Amino acid sequence: MNRSKSKASGLIVPLLIVMSLMFFWNMSRNINDILIPHLKRACQLSDLESSLVQSAFFGAYFLLALPAGQYIQRKGYRAGMIAGLLLACIGAAMFYPAAETRYYPMFLMALFIMAAGFTFLEVTATPYISKLGDPDAASSRLSLSAAVGSVGATLAPYIGSLLLLHEEDTPQSVIDAMSPERLADFLKSEADLVKSPYLTLAALFLIMVFILSLIKLPTVKDEQDEGYAFRKIFQFRHTMLGILAVFCYVGAEVGIVSFMIRYASSMQLPGLTEQKAALFITVFMALVLVGRLAGSLILNKYKPSRMLIISASGALVLVMAAMLTTGYVSLWALALVGLFTSIMYPIIFTISILDLGGYTKTASSLLIMGIVGGAIVPPVMGQISDQSDIRFSFVMPVLCYAYVIFFALRSHVRPKSF
Predict the structure, then answer these.
(1) What angle do CA 176, 181, 187 make, to 5 degrees?
(2) What is the DSSP string of 74-86?
(3) How far apart are the C-alpha atoms of 154 and 143, rounded to whole Å?
(4) What is the pLDDT of residues 162-182, one digit of tens each?
(5) Is residue 56 situated within a structural domain?
(6) Helices 47-75 and 360-369, interaxial angle, to 10°?
(7) CA Rg, the chain, in Å?
């Protein structure tokens, strides 16, 4: 018993280290929701063009998840964390020259490199936490870890709105009426606002590299499979279904928060500025945090697949309610989606890597690739918004949550190969 307690206490520090990484990358990732309306103004973009912020960011997950997984397979989890932090540092630092030139593609490149670092961190952290302790409590640990990440995600939109948005919006009609010289000065001042926040993030990532270089993390080994071959991973049906479930979950959540400020502005509610509208994103993320804290307890008592059905169904109903209503009722319906979406990812991930043995890291990389949903769903929503009405664009999250329900209904089948 004492040995068991000693072993459990020895896992606390590494868990805290990995959770702190999740805090910082979630904070960085969710500033994007404020960056979209900010760059839309600073670089004079359409809804579709501004949504490419998420495409550049989440596209990195798709392109680099497998290389990151292969690197970690060779070098180990610790090396993966350090590589991820260094890449994220480079990407954050690139915001300075991007702001100096106000060249939108450079902003996208900076986001891509940052996300490349986060890809290494996410491919590393999620399976590391799932295997660092009792396997039966993996969903609970992941939910708790995700809750820590949600603290960063909750703080990000609020802090970002204070740093990048204004108490009073400058109407587009006023911007259009500016002289060329006044417009150039205004747009440059807007772009310069990103310098301090992202240079601060770059410094934080370097500090985390230093901490990781000093602290010894326990080695976690996956089961070895002598007959390992990459192509065999596609034989696991539950993993393949899970990749699309991750795609839909991330795409829906990112799509909702990416367009929440733009949606609020479209209704022209008296007194509701962009900065105030950003509070609805903060509420969304705060509810994600509450849900994940509760989930760390609930998932120890109730069947994960059943909880996934309830969560996805609640999210679907709320998005439909938002589409059918107007004003603050509509905005609150979207904000409440955060509570239901909170525990989806740890459940989907845990179900999808169940009983994979030596294929766990490979499956983790493929599941992280599913995060590309965050790169694809927002531009589709942006295109729908540009061509018709932003309200209609929320049909995409509805379709995404419908698939998650399907995945949850299929997950009761014991994972096996085709």
Answers:
(1) 60
(2) HH-HHHHHHHHHH
(3) 16
(4) 888 776 777 777 887 888 888
(5) yes
(6) 170
(7) 21
